[in-house]
Amino acid sequence: MKQRLELAAAALSAATAQRDNAFYPEYHLAPPAGWMNDPNGLIFHRGLYHAFYQHHPFSENWGPMHWGHATSHDMVHWQHQPVALAPGNEFDRDGCFSGSAVDDDGTLSLIYTGHVWLNGEGNDSAIREVQCLATSVDGIHFTKQGVVLTAPPGIMHFRDPKVWREAGYWWMVIGARDAEDRGQVLLYKGGSLRDWQLDRVLAQASEHEGYMWECPDFFPLGNEHVLMFSPQGIQACGDDYRNLFQSGCLRGQWQPDGDFVISHTFRELDHGHDVYAPQSFLAADGRRVVIAWMDMWESVMPSKTGGWAGCMTLPRELHLQQGKLCMTPVRELETLRREHQQLRAVTLRDNMEEISSDARAVELITRWDLDASTARNFGLKLGNGLTITVDSQSQRLVLKRDYAAQYGICGERSVALPRQGQLHLRVYIDRSSVEVFVNQGEATLSSRIYPQAGQRRLSLFAENGQAVLQSGDCWQLAAG
After folding, report:
1. Taking 90 as the threshold, does the pLDDT of residue 279 lie above it?
2. What residues does each domain of the chain span?
3. Residue 203: its pLDDT value, please?
4. Is the pTM of this model over 0.85?
5. pLDDT of 436-451, one tens digit each?
6. CATH: 2.60.40.10, 1.10.274.10, 3.30.110.70, 2.115.10.20. Which one for 2-329?
7. Is 38 a catalytic residue?
């Protein structure tokens, strides 16, 4: 693997020097160059946060998957490390696919899927997927230990292991596709990272719930357990499931050696255009934190012309609040705040009020009085390409982007809103992304955006009536 890693390092170095930064994020984790997708191996280990990710260092397009690697002391400021894994062995010759990281008695250990195409590159009708182990002494350089688990009979799509230790054993969930083309999550139990037995099918799709469940994650939260995964094959239904593939969770109860008793049906985790493969980890103080890939398969990615593609969402704390599953930005992000602008209380009447003439890296909090607001539409605009709108007729918050002229990108996503009270919006804008947290994280919308030069004016607006802003805060953000 050493020679392949050296080739990857050389390719990355050359591509990074040529990278165009027009859309490169100021404070989100993105590859130094090349392609990025699913987060892998998120872990706090020996005083450092590690974020591995699916990576093709040789071009801005998806290709044979490597594992990129970055580290941080605070989940906010990331330092790129050498590529951790490269494909090429018999068991992973066509890709080191997604997986996880654990601390095995002090040794940082990666468990990942080795992928092999059996009938030509890209032909998913004939593949072999196995679970593999790699270990590191220094947390930077890894040694492959080979295959530790093969698929059960009748299963071909078998990937994305998430591993944890509980009740004296190792446990692993794996995404799978059964012989009847239904997604499922398999649960394994092990006495070591090399010794696994199938425990049970933890959960599986019924009709119309997807043909493949990717990137599973299973963890306790409050007095519940959450099964988070990314199903493929769910059809759009009204305002739900509008992306090509989804990301969401089931909630219920579980104890080791028992069934997962589901109490809450599948719910999308984020309602924006660009979220996939969310993975969780424990922060140093025990908070459950989630990071996802902030892009979507088969979507237009204008950054490719700059030699790179893909970035991660901000880290978000996952918690239960009055029975609702909520996500809020981790408090460490406040260290990015620089110049502060307090927004005065104002009533907008069919007009706009500028907040920033050039919003490239901004955190904005607005608090709206829904009871006193009668406007048909009100909210935020960024240039002429992005609007975050309270639609009082449909009672939904609508994120709409329109970059059709430049890139053929357009469309909207939305979430339901309360009919009265206060609406609290916390919005993060970066060079090519927006993340909206609604009412302390009861809902989130995350999308990639591509404003042109001179199209980053950030404003409040109201149309067809009045909108009452009670207060607000805006910060310019430093680079991550």
Report:
1. yes
2. 2-329, 333-477
3. 98
4. yes
5. 999 999 999 999 999 9
6. 2.115.10.20
7. yes
pLDDT of residue 377: 97
Averaged pLDDT of the chain:
97
Question: What number does CATH give the domain 333-477?
Answer: 2.60.120.560
What pLDDT does residue 58 have? 97
**Catalytic-role residue among 38, 94, 199, 270:** 38
3-state secondary structure the chain: CHHHHHHHHHHHHHHHHHCCCCCCCCCCCCCCCEEEEEEEEEEEECCEEEEEEEEECCCCCCCCEEEEEEEECCCCCEEECCCCECCCCCCCCCEEEEEEEEEECCEEEEEEEEEEECCCCCCCCCEEEEEEEEEECCCCCCEEEEEEECCCCCCCCEEEEEEEEECCEEEEEEEEECCCCCEEEEEEEEEECCEEEEEEEEEECCCCCCCEEEEEEEEEECCEEEEEEEEECCCCECCECCCCCCCEEEEEECCCCCCCEEEEEEEECCCCCCCEEEEEEECCCCCEEEEEECCCCCCCCHHHHHCEECCECCCEEEEEECCEEEEEECHHHHHHEEEEEEECCEEEECCEEEEECCCCCEEEEEEEECCCCCCCEEEEEECCCEEEEEECCCCEEEEEEEEHHHHCEEEEEEEECCCCCEEEEEEEEECCEEEEEECCCCEEEEEECCCCCCCCCEEEEEECCEEEEEEEEEEEECCC
Q: Kindly report which listed range (112-116, 211-215, 339-343, 420-424) carries the lowest average pLDDT score.
A: 420-424
Structure confidence at residue 207 (pLDDT): 86
